[in-house]
Design goal:
Layout: H1 4-21, E1 28-33, E2 38-43, E3 53-56, H2 59-78
Antiparallel strand pairs: 1-2, 2-3
Length: 90
């Protein structure tokens, strides 16, 4: 861990982020982990097991990673498990 001042700043920043952004995120549950000094986001939408959990110590990076993960889920959901459907000619 860092110095007491750095830890206090990280705690205040993380908690403020969760307080501000938590209510805005309809498909995410946000929390701050003081033990890890990280913000953690749990995806509450439909996704394959074991679920989707994203964490980062930088709130802005967390938002970017959350967006990337959802876009990845959407891309994979658009392609069936066996690959794209056959589009041959009849």
């Amino acid at each position: 861990m860092g110095t007491p001042d750095a830890d206090a700043l990280a705690d205040a920043t993380g908690r403020a982020f969760v307080k501000e952004w938590g209510p805005r995120m309809r498909l995410w549950y946000l929390m701050y982990s003081p033990h890890r000094r990280r913000c953690v986001a749990f995806f509450q939408g439909v996704c394959p097991p074991p679920g989707l959990i994203v964490e980062d110590s930088n709130p802005q990076v967390l938002l970017q990673r959350m967006d990337q993960e959802v876009r990845s889920l959407q891309r994979h959901a658009a392609v069936p498990a066996g690959g794209p459907p056959y589009q041959g000619t009849s």
